[in-house]
Amino acid sequence: MSVSFIRRIASPKKALTAAAVAAATAGMALSAAPAQAAPDAASSAQAAAHKMIPDSAQYNAFSKIVEHESGWNPTATNSSSGAYGLVQALPASKMASAGADWKTNPATQIKWGLDYMNSRYGSPTQAWNFWQANGWY
């Protein structure tokens, strides 16, 4: 058997092995990424927020906070602190004041988050200003 024939056989195997390693590595990187809300859940939550926050500047500020905190995932949980939901309430059970369905209903979480931002900061835009300066709110 000639060396060039062996190289022709070995090269595709090396290429396949490299491709398999690259695919596996990419797969591991994707699986390690934080969970995001399903597109329907995120868009449904965003639509609910739009209805509850008609002012575009206030909605945009609220949306930026939620995007940073949970990626619009209503079941997002911070494994180290236990913060939960769209607005990452801590403790999560505080959202029960907005409704018994706080664990599963994005509208309840939005109501609680909006009330929190208004009472603590004056508005979602002021909460966003604080978030930008501190990386939390």
TrEMBL record:
Keywords: Signal. Residues 1-37 form the signal peptide. Pfam families: SLT (PF01464). Residues 59-128 form the Transglycosylase SLT domain. This is Lytic transglycosylase domain-containing protein.
